Amino acid sequence: MFYKVKNSEVEGQHQLAEIVPVIISKFRLLIAILLSLLSCFAFALILQWNQRLYQYFLFIKTTEYDCTHYLVSNSTNEKMVCKKIRINNNSYFTYRFLKYKLKDNFFQPVNYIESSVSLDEKSKNLDVLLNTQASREIRQIIYGNSQLQIPIKSIFTYLFQELTSPFYILQYFSVLLWIAEGFIIFAIVLLSFSFLACIINYYLMRRSRIQLQQLATIQQSVTLKDNSIIQGSDLVVGDLFYVHDNQQLNCDSILISGDVMVNEATLTGESIPVPKQSIKELTNEISQNTLFEGTKVIQVSQYQQNIALVIRTGYSSVRGQYFRNVIFPPPPSRQFYLQACKFLLILGLIILTIFTLLYLTQYQYMNYSSKLIIIRYLDVVTWIVPPALPIFFSLAQAISLLRLKSEDIMGSNPIKAEEAGKIDTICFDKTGTLSTLGLQAHDYYPQNDENLDIMACCHHLAIVKNELVGDPLELEMFKKTNWNISFDDQKYFQVTNSLKTFKIIRIFEFSSHLQMMSVVAHNINDNTYTLFIKGSPEKLIQMSVNQLNNTIQEQLQIKTFNGLRVIGLGYKGLLPDQINLDRNVLESQINFSGIFTLENSLKKDTSHVIEELLDSNLDIRVISGDNALTTTHCAFESKIIENKANTLIIDYDQSTDSLLIQDLRQQIPSSSRSSCDGKPGSQYNFILTQLDTIYNNDCNYAITGNLWSVLMQNKVNEVSINQSSDIQQYNQLKQIDEIDQKSIECLNKVIRKTKIFSRMKPHQKKEIVQYLQTQLNKYVMMVGDGANDCSAIAESLVGVSFSSSDASYTSPFSNRSDSIKCVISILLQGRATKRIIIELFQYLVLISVLKFAGTALLQFQGMNFGDFQYIFMNYMSSVPVLILMTLSSKSDKLTPSKPNDDVFAIPNQLQFYNIFIFTSLGCIILSAIVMQHSEQPSIPSPIETYIREGPLNSVMMLANQYYNMLICIILYQSHPFKNKFYQNYPLTIWILGCLIIAVVTNFSNSSRGWLSIVNINDEIFDHSDLIAFSVIICTSILCQICQITMQKVFPTIKPIQK
């Protein structure tokens, strides 16, 4: 048995899909305890690491009545067990700080409005919210208070979770092996280094969470309606409180009484006054009456009490959702790491095979003790899987964020610094991203009194500190009229010129759903009432009862074609008894009057940046909520498309089931209409057939939100068909929708060839990004400027925000400057970071394998490296190299390629095994020379302990010291992602210093004792130190020559394919 979820906007990006009641099986729990005891708690650790195993091993399905927990699945198929809570005989559970309630056989997030008033009764049950029967204590238990509490783990919890992770278990295993082999000091250093890294990670995590808590906390006192004073963080759902000037709101609330002006910059990034009106009745659209958490009150009505009702608190508020997204980011891609694990597994099998052959042919005749042989077999794991690997990956990502921070680009997710190196597609928002936020009034047409009246009245400007403020568009529009405005002794305002006076008595705020706003105005001169309306020209024309003037239509086409932002104007005469009718009644059967145009210019460097991105073969698209022609012009000006006139704009009219095609290739842009035949189920097939024909043209394509909505609606139907388990139902659905592989290919072709997406709503922007990533296998970066792009930014692999609002916290990167050049910096740094991580992986594995090779050769004479020699090779020599490799700086120019992070790709394999073969060959040659020309050491029988000093030990130690430095030089690949090797000054100095030390140690008798190196000239033959040096240098040079040759034939870069 399972329950579906009624999803709600309060879930944000963490929507649940399915709930299964479960209970802990006592029998299975007993088995788990026994297995844990018998395995020395290894089974308990496995359950901790594998949540799926934990869920399915300990829990069994049951009825809702008997269950103790719920197994919840979200939209990305992540599963989690949540504890059942009973409150007032109702079932609840908490998932990621949001509480869900079982109601009518569905689970739904607790939402005060939806819980108190059913949707079909909202208009007549506002009083239910104001007169709730639930006590304040019960409301606090169900909904929580207004404090956004950021979870910060204690150091003990963090250490327990980290120190029992697979990474540290491998460390303990390595330590035990080293101790068993007698390398006690090295084992202590290894453990200390890992523990120190864990402490540093905790400090960084805690500091980040404290900073987030400081951002989330709003401290102030609030006066409730009963005149009691409490802390704002103690407000609970259902509380009524007074709103006053300069108050920053602790929760989402609806205005019950009064009128308020707020600044919603924390949500939208735009610091403009937004008017809020008291609510009269509950509707599906209450944003105009909602005071959102985090916003600041800048002015309240002086003529009445301003009272608000708390409706959402904590993580269910809009601001809370942003912080919830930061705490629970989308799971990162693990493709590279999974491939790395497979590669290490294969390499481990190869090494084990080599060791087995050595044992069968040599070691077993040397009478090694069984203990040493077993330890050597187990030791292969520590050689092949370097335990410190994740530490250096994290360091490379963190340093990338610091480099970007120096360019005023703030990063919140280190993993995204690496994933930016995979990007091949970039989607830009238009306004505020490609173009500036500022608008300049251009003109209005026709230039008559009717349009001037509308422009003078249809807005919601206000006076704050003796300054006229409001939406920049409305400010520009009103200034164009040269009328006067007064706010004295009235609810809204009054506008006048030399001939007329209008008093505004009702305002219907702009609705993105309706695409319009309107006012009811009273003409004082002739005592008449008029509804003035402005909004999307397409929407107003659709509502108009008068025949559209051909001249206006032509002007509309010309203005939008030239990239101007166009606002439609309209009006409707009202009788006195009509002025209090509902908005949906008033805003119908209007008279379309004309258009008002504004200029929205590109940012100074937009076209230059886009040109550089296109030169690097990136797939660039623009996704905007603006008019299709305006968006097309912006795409042309910014050079996303080469020829604006070679564009087809495709729209869909749902009222007539018609596909609208606007062809800009004609001298006078014209439109044509193709209608569906009306047969049931033929709509989607008709659209795709038409689109398949249209998209065979060689031109630019732009589609609208209307068409996208139809395409995605039927795409959902396709998914439901594929998931249907009833064969008969499957066939019926398939026949109705006529979905086949050809249709899917056609849809993919449409989306692949479309560069311009216009009139897109926020959720549609997210769907486009989602489609590009899941259906077309693109790696998408979304670049936007505010809350409207929040969901699309979160959906993309890498998101960039220009906003300083709380919504930008959900973006992996936010830019403090206004330039989109930050996109180039992020891409360059991402590619450099990706290449650095590949090199870190190869370097650390290669030096580990090299140490294994040296150890295997030493065992031919019963030898091994000494304690300090291991410490020097692992920490004093190699660790600084790994740290300094992360400091390599990015290239200055984008190229049409990205790092090939496929571990099993032929170029990467050749590069790795080339170095492995030549360095191993050098060690084998040196060991052969030593064993042939030096005395065989006295080897005990049986061999219980290793000899740790001698000519072979000394030569292998010197070889490792040289090769550890030279491998870094050979591996380092600068072009086209990083600067030259020598430009990483710390790394260059360290490598040269270590090589100098190696040379001095090699040739100077007095400088060898500190590494337990003997005088090899005395032990082998004269000038053997020079022979050893020559072998190492020659094999390294040959390796470098092969490396350069392979780079030309098999480059380790991946061309970007559009």
TrEMBL record:
The keyword tRNA processing does not apply. Pfam families: Cation_ATPase, E1-E2_ATPase. The keyword Transferase does not apply. The chain crosses the membrane at residues 29-49, 175-204, 343-360, 380-402, 840-858, 870-889, 910-931, 951-972, 984-1006, 1026-1046. GO terms for molecular function: ATP binding; ATP hydrolysis activity; ATPase-coupled monoatomic cation transmembrane transporter activity; metal ion binding; P-type transmembrane transporter activity. Coiled coil: none annotated. Residues 230-322 form the P-type ATPase A domain. It comes from the Eukaryota. InterPro entries: ATPase_P-type_domA (IPR059000), P-type_TPase_V (IPR006544), P_typ_ATPase (IPR001757), P_typ_ATPase_HD_dom (IPR044492). It is found in: Membrane. GO terms for cellular component: membrane. Keywords: ATP-binding, Magnesium, Membrane, Metal-binding, Nucleotide-binding, Phosphoprotein, Translocase, Transmembrane, Transmembrane helix. It is a multi-pass membrane protein. This is P-type ATPase A domain-containing protein. The lineage of its organism: Eukaryota, Sar, Alveolata, Ciliophora, Intramacronucleata.
